[in-house]
């Protein structure tokens, strides 16, 4: 058989092969690792393979603990199933419902155009306007929806500024054109790329600012409740106070880098100049104004959603702010079941079930014992290494799958090195949203790349520096205002009970080994 043809057939059947071979290849773990820990590790790695390769839909993989944990004696079903209906899941659901209402009535479109009217049409400021709008919308909507909505607006404005894209590409290649014309066309192409690449990056950054902005933030809250039930430091308000300044800092640095790399930071683009460019900028401004006028006056539905959105945000902030008594004390805790987007809810539930299994089976402790050599690394350096590792890993896997897989390990690592668990867990959670280097890293990257105007090398070159900036920003945040907000310089009492139990298990294991030896 032709090797090329065989390779194509093999590639087309890759998902079926992974589904079949992964369980078989992981079987030795059941015999090498201690019994209960080995069984849990088997399920965790199987889910990790399926999540990273998407051999099964993410939500289907998330349901594996429901059947495998009780069947393999890792966790009874009465402990597994409640993990799919935690209050954290319904907090995420409330954000999805609000986002759906905003998208249904086009309120996000009105917000975007209003911001662009304010910042003006000089490319440097327009890129900033695009990034501010994308990041703000992504705090409440999905970053995928934000990118899909903003890209057509960007393309319309760019066509007003620079004309038809195909003509621009031809001018770049045409050697018969004067040198100045060709240089100008190449410059305009660079600015065009800067516009397109800034939107998905800003959407990914913006999602980190609120708990409901991206799934990993809620997974952090859910796993904290599972591992450290007495930890109540992370809520909507406290996360926003920590993450919003971090988001702003990273956004500004990212804008400077993108504008510098793609020619936006240039005096002729920032300062008014009476030349042919002024006519193009006036035309672009007219496009924005015209699109805004087409929306007409604010409809009743838009006004209602705006009002409800403000109420929603205020209620999230005041539910349980800790420094004063929140309104949650007036309601008894209970569960709710409605018509829900099950794929998202089940995915979160699968992560929480996996974390619970790691905790109950002792797998987290077993992994922690093998991470003891990392105790020699200074905590501040460990924060940088953890953020960098997670940011690199999430380039190839979804951020949700990444944080589900690694957060239990990172929590146990913090306990082993006697560091406040939040000092390691928060950077990991934030870092898994910093996937900028590849088109496949996130759906927003894929949408921007699918426009056909970006090359992989554009994303790698820009994203590499964006990753470095993100890692440095997280490190700065954790060692300045985050340190004082969450008392990260001390080992908290809420982590001691788990530490004590872990130490007991470890001591018991060592004693047993000594007795048998």
UniProtKB/TrEMBL annotation:
Question: Which Pfam families does this one have?
Answer: Na_sulph_symp
Which GO MF term does the entry hold, naming one? Answer: sodium:dicarboxylate symporter activity
The UniProt keyword set, sorted, is: Ion transport, Membrane, Sodium, Sodium transport, Transmembrane, Transmembrane helix, Transport
CDD domains to which the protein is assigned, alphabetical: SLC13_permease
Segments passing through the bilayer: 48-72, 84-102, 122-141, 195-219, 239-263, 300-318, 380-410, 462-481
User: Where found?
Assistant: Membrane
What GO cellular-component annotations does this UniProt entry give?
A: plasma membrane
Task: Report how it sits in the membrane.
Answer: Multi-pass membrane protein
Q: Does the keyword Zinc-finger apply?
A: no
Family as reported in the entry's similarity comment: Belongs to the SLC13A/DASS transporter (TC 2.A.47) family. NADC subfamily.
Q: Mind telling me which NCBIfam families this protein's record contains?
A: dass
What is this protein's record name? Answer: Solute carrier family 13 member 3
Give the species: Sinocyclocheilus anshuiensis
Q: Which gene encodes it?
A: slc13a3
């Amino acid at each position: 058989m032709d090797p090329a043809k065989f390779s194509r057939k093999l590639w087309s059947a890759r998902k079926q092969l992974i589904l079949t071979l992964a369980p078989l290849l992981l079987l030795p773990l059941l015999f090498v690792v201690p019994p209960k820990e080995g069984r849990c590790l088997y399920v965790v790695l199987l889910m990790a393979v399926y999540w990273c390769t998407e051999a099964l839909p993410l939500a289907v993989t998330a349901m594996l603990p429901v059947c495998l944990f009780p069947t393999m004696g890792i966790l009874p079903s009465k402990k597994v199933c409640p993990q799919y209906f935690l209050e954290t899941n319904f907090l995420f659901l409330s954000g999805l419902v609000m986002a759906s209402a905003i998208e249904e009535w086009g309120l996000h479109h009105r917000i975007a155009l209003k911001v662009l009217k304010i910042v003006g049409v000089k490319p440097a400021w327009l890129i900033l306007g695009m990034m501010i709008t994308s990041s703000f919308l992504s705090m409440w909507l999905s970053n995928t929806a934000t990118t899909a909505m903003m890209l057509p607006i960007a393309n319309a404005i760019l066509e007003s500024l620079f004309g038809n894209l195909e003509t621009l590409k031809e001018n770049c290649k045409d050697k018969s054109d004067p040198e100045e014309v060709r240089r100008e066309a190449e410059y305009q192409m660079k600015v065009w790329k800067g516009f397109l690449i800034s939107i998905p990056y800003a959407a990914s950054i913006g999602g980190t600012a609120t708990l409901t902005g991206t799934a990993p933030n809620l997974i952090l809250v859910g796993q904290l409740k599972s591992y450290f039930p007495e930890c109540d430091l992370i809520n909507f308000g406290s996360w926003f106070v920590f993450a919003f300044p971090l988001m702003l800092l990273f956004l500004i640095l990212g804008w400077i880098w993108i504008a510098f790399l793609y020619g936006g930071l240039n005096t002729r683009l920032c300062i008014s100049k009476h030349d042919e460019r002024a006519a193009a900028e006036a035309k672009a401004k007219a496009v924005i104004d015209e699109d805004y006028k087409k929306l007409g006056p604010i409809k009743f539905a838009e006004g209602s959603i705006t009002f409800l959105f403000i109420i929603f945000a205020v209620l999230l902030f005041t539910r349980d702010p800790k420094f004063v008594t929140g309104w949650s004390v007036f309601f008894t805790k209970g569960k709710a079941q409605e018509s829900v987007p099950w794929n998202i809810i089940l995915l979160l539930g699968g992560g929480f079930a996996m974390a619970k299994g790691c905790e109950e089976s002792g797998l987290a402790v077993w992994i922690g014992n093998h991470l003891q050599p990392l105790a020699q690394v200074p905590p501040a350096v460990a924060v940088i290494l953890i953020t960098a590792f997670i940011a690199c890993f999430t380039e190839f896997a979804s951020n949700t799958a990444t944080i589900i897989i690694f957060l239990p390990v990172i929590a146990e690592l913090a306990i082993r090195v006697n560091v406040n668990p939040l000092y390691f867990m928060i950077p990991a959670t934030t870092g898994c949203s910093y996937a900028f280097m590849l088109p496949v890293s996130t759906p927003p990257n894929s949408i921007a790349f699918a426009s056909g105007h970006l090359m992989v090398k554009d994303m790698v070159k820009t994203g590499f520096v964006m990753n470095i900036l993100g890692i440095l920003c997280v490190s700065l945040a954790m060692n300045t205002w985050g340190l004082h907000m969450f008392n990260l310089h001390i080992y908290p009492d809420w982590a001691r009970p788990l530490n004590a139990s872990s130490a007991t298990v470890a001591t018991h294991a060592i004693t047993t080994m000594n007795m048998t030896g």
